[in-house]
Design a protein that fits this description.
alpha+beta, Arc Repressor Mutant, subunit A
């Protein structure tokens, strides 16, 4: 398992190798889709209580 910026996980055994957040089976793509749909960070954190604000920031940085 490889970590990028301490938050994004890459593993061929997890979510078909898609980038996930700290190995939680929550993909970076999922979070980016919520953000692009207009969800606020607060709403995302409510829906995914295991996430931290820094996880969402890492997703945004990963996308750039």
């Amino acid at each position: 398992m490889e970590y990028i910026a301490g938050r994004i996980t890459l593993s061929p055994d997890l979510c078909n190798g898609k980038p996930t957040i700290r190995g939680l089976r929550i993909t970076v793509k999922t979070i980016l889709e919520f953000i692009s749909a207009g969800e606020s960070v607060k709403e995302i954190l409510y829906q995914y209580p295991d996430l931290e604000e820094a996880d969402i920031e890492a997703c945004l940085k990963f996308a750039i």
